[in-house]
């Protein structure tokens, strides 16, 4: 710009922008970076500086602009991001990712510049953003009225900006065409960690914790070495939890066991730290750059799952940052410079000098109490308990197995059995591995070691690593030989039951076993419980039975060796399908209102069944399973997982050439479209909606086509095309009436009602919903959502009828909570917050707003079409209470669980029906959004 610059004064909105990773981009593009930078500057000047903003500074890839109006500033940023995203760059990797930050405050210019802390706050807001993201402060959000067309602000909560003591509430600008999903803001928040929460008590290990703590104080890489089941992970987490305050940049736990490809180890670590891949750059480089100036502890668990890749990431992290320390658990060392290997010892089996029980006995006592329903073992059993832990060499997993046996045996009986077991274990080290039914021995000692490794979730040892971990392997054999010996003593029926149960991911009951085997399982099950290969868990409704994971892995290998895997897993898929069908039926076999709560216990089994369908089974069966979880995935914030399973099943179809009926494909594509919409992937949502329509037309099923077309309005609403969405809804509803399938177009009815509510056509919306009530009541898969009551509550709020709003919303909330529709319950909480605000209860309103936002954030869902309405009503409550009181009350609400918030909302007092009730006060009625 040419001087002189007319700088705004008074209430000024400052905007800072820069390119995320500009140094890396310049290095990658070389001479090609200059034209990219030049084009970036042109686009920003055309969209930012070409408005009424005053450009104060352009340096390198950065802009600093002052605006006299917050709305104009946000509009300019939105236009700039859309221009950058829509521009044709030389290559996709060369597209600059620009982060933008805004803050509004009072400032007066002097000598062509501003000397104000508000400028620094704006710069810190920009520094907290990621490339492609627009962040603004609460002040900007408050003064940006109205927002740009089609745009809204997502409340990201309170954050501490670097250099500022007071927390700042940050908001993200969202609009059609903008990326929505970003890691947490880059702010100077308090020390944090992601260490897993333990569900059982940590027993003993005081000496080991002290030794390991001293090592961690002096060395940057400590590897906890030991056999599977020795307690490496538990000790590492326990130690790290006491060191959180020592690491200002956090303590981060990464489970390498979940990484299936060596190249993804760096991605797993980066994901925990909130980092995103950068185009044209190895993930490990991004990781090292992030860690360079930070002081943090990284706990890498089960590194033996990917030893070489883990070693590379550790080496790069330690070399690139002097403030990073690594605590690793593994069954073999890395051999890296500076590595300190600490072998975890067994639990002490000798009494303490003060006469207290040893750690091993204390653990056995603790677990035995749990196994026996909280009852203390008889004091007369103490001597036998000591014999047990001594025979088990103080190994934690073996002790857990022993405690499970004490459900059906006394300590004396177990001690006698272990005497026999240990002699067999000693012989087992010299003897070969048993055959599939535990009768014939073949192979050699190394076969046993490899089998042990597989049973513990690892891989067979290599020649290069055997010498390094021979001691751990011997201990590993001692623990796993207990399972081998027990299996070797099984008869054919018990051995088969153990193998087949390995296909289940969690506990099963007696009828399930009978269904699986088509045989009475009681006799072989009793044998397995006696040998502690199956754990019996008594419950009021009947006992359930489960395997520990090492035994499950052992049994799964036996299943494959016996040639029974396909048959058993197909039976498991059939059982999973049947379980899904039962969730929709009552005791009389008739359809009942679908409760997503009934699907929660099935999730692990259904995932196991889906995994088989996607890798070795039928994709058609997998699509049926996925369809049963359709609403569950979205209501639990797992829409992305649902999309991934569908992609895997599509790949299985392509791999096998399996013929899938068009109707099944249409249903799958429609479900995929809904998942994509819930996940903010609008383009994918529209693409699969179109595929679903084509497949449904090919199938010739009018009801199916109506369901697909009824969802067509969703992507239009997501893109802000409300008039077009309303037209589509009306066309679908009219067509459904003609085809006598109006019940299948219910989603279009609800979408149309929302659109009518949005533009103030309240009478038409109420009439439409009244006609839809019997249709909703007749559809068991949908009536638990009580969408009619929810939307009638919204209409009543817009009319200022608090009595009707209260009644409709509480009905909707009660149903949604009781039937497990968590995402939709958040919308209802927001609506009840509005009802409370209009009824003179702003503190309750703030709490409900906070609870709804916290749950919605945990589910990674968005408010959808109601977003502007919630935001406007929330702003009114904030203005009424004041910033400090609102933030405190809002935070109280965010700390409530969804169930706690719903319980509080259901206790909200019914509005007074007196003549002076707010129901009849049109002046206080909430305004209707245009």
From TrEMBL:
<protein>
    <submittedName>
        <fullName>Predicted ATPase</fullName>
    </submittedName>
</protein>
<feature type="domain" description="Guanylate cyclase">
    <location>
        <begin position="13"/>
        <end position="126"/>
    </location>
</feature>
<dbReference type="InterPro" id="IPR027417">
    <property type="entry name" value="P-loop_NTPase"/>
</dbReference>
<feature type="region of interest" description="Disordered">
    <location>
        <begin position="425"/>
        <end position="444"/>
    </location>
</feature>
<dbReference type="GO" id="GO:0035556">
    <property type="term" value="P:intracellular signal transduction"/>
</dbReference>
<dbReference type="InterPro" id="IPR058852">
    <property type="entry name" value="HTH_77"/>
</dbReference>
<dbReference type="InterPro" id="IPR029787">
    <property type="entry name" value="Nucleotide_cyclase"/>
</dbReference>
<dbReference type="Pfam" id="PF00211">
    <property type="entry name" value="Guanylate_cyc"/>
</dbReference>
<dbReference type="GO" id="GO:0009190">
    <property type="term" value="P:cyclic nucleotide biosynthetic process"/>
</dbReference>
<dbReference type="InterPro" id="IPR001054">
    <property type="entry name" value="A/G_cyclase"/>
</dbReference>
<dbReference type="GO" id="GO:0004016">
    <property type="term" value="F:adenylate cyclase activity"/>
</dbReference>
<dbReference type="InterPro" id="IPR011990">
    <property type="entry name" value="TPR-like_helical_dom_sf"/>
</dbReference>
<dbReference type="Pfam" id="PF25872">
    <property type="entry name" value="HTH_77"/>
</dbReference>
<feature type="compositionally biased region" description="Basic and acidic residues">
    <location>
        <begin position="427"/>
        <end position="440"/>
    </location>
</feature>
């Amino acid at each position: 710009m040419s001087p002189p610059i007319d700088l705004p004064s008074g209430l000024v909105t400052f905007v800072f922008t820069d390119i995320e990773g500009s140094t890396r981009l310049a290095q990658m593009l070389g001479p090609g970076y200059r034209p990219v930078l030049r084009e970036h500057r042109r686009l920003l000047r055309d969209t930012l500086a070409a408005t009424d903003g005053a450009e104060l500074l352009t340096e390198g890839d950065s802009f600093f602009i002052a605006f006299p109006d917050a709305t104009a500033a946000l509009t300019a940023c939105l236009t700039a991001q859309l221009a950058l995203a829509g521009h044709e760059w030389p290559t996709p990797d060369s597209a600059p990712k620009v982060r933008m930050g805004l803050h509004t405050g009072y400032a007066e210019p002097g000598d062509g510049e501003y000397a104000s802390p508000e400028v620094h706050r704006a710069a810190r807001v920009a520094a907290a953003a990621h490339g492609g993201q627009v962040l603004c402060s609460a002040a900007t959000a408050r003064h940006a009225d109205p927002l740009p067309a089609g745009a809204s602000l997502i409340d990201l909560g309170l954050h501490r900006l670097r250099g500022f003591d007071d927390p700042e509430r940050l908001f993200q600008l969202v609009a059609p065409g903008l990326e929505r999903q970003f890691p947490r803001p880059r702010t100077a928040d308090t020390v944090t960690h992601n260490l897993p929460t333990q569900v059982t008590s940590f027993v003993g290990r005081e000496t080991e914790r002290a030794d390991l703590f001293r090592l961690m104080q002096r060395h940057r890489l400590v590897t906890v070495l030991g056999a599977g089941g020795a307690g490496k992970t538990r000790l590492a987490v326990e130690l790290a939890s006491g060191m959180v305050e020592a690491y200002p940049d956090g303590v981060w736990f990464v489970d390498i066991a979940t990484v299936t490809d060596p190249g993804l180890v760096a991605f797993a670590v980066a994901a925990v730290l909130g980092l995103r891949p950068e185009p044209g750059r190895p993930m490990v480089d991004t990781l090292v750059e992030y860690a360079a100036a930070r002081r943090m502890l990284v706990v890498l668990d089960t590194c033996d799952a990917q030893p070489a890749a883990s070693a590379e990431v550790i080496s790069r992290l330690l070399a690139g940052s002097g403030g990073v320390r690594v605590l690793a658990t593994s069954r073999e060392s890395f051999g890296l410079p500076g590595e300190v290997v600490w072998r975890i010892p067994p639990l002490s089996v000798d009494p303490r000098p003060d006469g207290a029980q040893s750690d091993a006995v204390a653990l056995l006592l603790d677990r035995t109490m749990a196994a026996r329903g909280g009852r203390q073992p008889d004091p007369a059993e103490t001597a036998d308990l000591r014999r047990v832990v001594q025979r088990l060499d103080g190994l934690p997993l073996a002790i857990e197995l022993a405690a499970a046996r004490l459900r059906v045996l006394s300590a004396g009986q177990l001690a006698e059995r272990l005497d026999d077991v240990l002699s067999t274990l000693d012989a087992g080290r010299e003897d070969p591995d048993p055959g599939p039914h535990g009768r014939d021995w073949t192979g050699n000692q190394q076969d046993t070691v490899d089998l042990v490794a597989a049973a513990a979730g690892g891989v067979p040892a290599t020649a290069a690593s055997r010498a390094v971990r021979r001691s751990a392997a011997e201990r590993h054999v001692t623990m796993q030989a207990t399972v081998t010996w027990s299996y070797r003593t099984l008869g054919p029926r018990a051995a088969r039951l153990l193998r087949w149960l390995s296909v289940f991911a969690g506990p099963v009951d007696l009828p399930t076993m009978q269904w699986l085997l088509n045989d009475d399982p009681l006799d072989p099950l009793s044998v397995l419980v006696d040998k502690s290969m199956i754990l019996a868990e008594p419950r009021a409704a009947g006992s359930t039975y489960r395997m520990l994971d090492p035994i499950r892995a052992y049994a799964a290998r036996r299943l494959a060796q016996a040639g029974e895997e396909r048959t058993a897993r197909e039976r498991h898929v059939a059982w999973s399908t049947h379980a899904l069908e039962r969730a929709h039926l009552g005791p009389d076999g008739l359809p009942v209102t679908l409760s997503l709560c009934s699907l929660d216990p099935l999730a692990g089994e259904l995932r196991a069944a889906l995994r088989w369908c996607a890798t070795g089974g039928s994709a058609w069966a997998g699509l049926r399973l996925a369809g049963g979880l359709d609403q569950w995935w979205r209501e639990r914030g797992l829409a992305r997982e649902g999309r991934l399973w569908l992609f895997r099943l599509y790949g299985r179809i392509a791999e096998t050439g399996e013929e899938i009926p068009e109707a099944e494909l249409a249903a799958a594509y429609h479900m995929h479209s809904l998942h994509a919409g819930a996940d903010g992937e609008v383009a994918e949502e529209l693409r699969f909606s179109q595929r679903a329509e084509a497949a449904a037309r090919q199938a010739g099923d009018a009801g199916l086509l109506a369901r697909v077309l009824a969802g067509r309005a969703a992507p239009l609403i997501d893109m802000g095309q409300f008039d077009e969405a309303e037209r589509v809804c009306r066309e679908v509803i009219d067509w459904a009436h003609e085809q006598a399938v109006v019940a299948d177009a219910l989603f279009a009815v609800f979408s149309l009602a929302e659109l009518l509510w949005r533009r103030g056509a309240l009478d038409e919306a109420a009439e439409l919903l009244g006609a839809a009530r019997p249709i909703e009541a007749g559809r068991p898969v949908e009536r638990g959502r009580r969408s009619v009551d929810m939307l009638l509550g919204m209409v009543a709020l817009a009319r200022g009828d608090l009595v009707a709003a209260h009644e409709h919303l509480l009905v909707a909330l009660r149903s949604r909570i009781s039937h497990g529709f968590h995402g939709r319950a958040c919308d209802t909480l927001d609506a009840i917050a509005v009802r409370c605000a209009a009824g003179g209860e702003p503190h309750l309103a703030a709490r409900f707003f906070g609870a709804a936002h916290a749950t919605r954030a945990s589910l990674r869902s968005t408010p959808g079409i109601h977003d502007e309405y919630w935001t406007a009503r929330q702003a009114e409550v904030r203005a009424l209470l004041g910033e400090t009181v609102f933030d405190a009350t809002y935070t109280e609400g965010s700390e409530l669980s969804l169930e706690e918030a719903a319980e509080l909302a259901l206790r909200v007092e019914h509005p007074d029906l007196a003549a002076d009730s707010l129901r009849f006060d049109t002046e206080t009625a909430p305004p209707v959004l245009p």
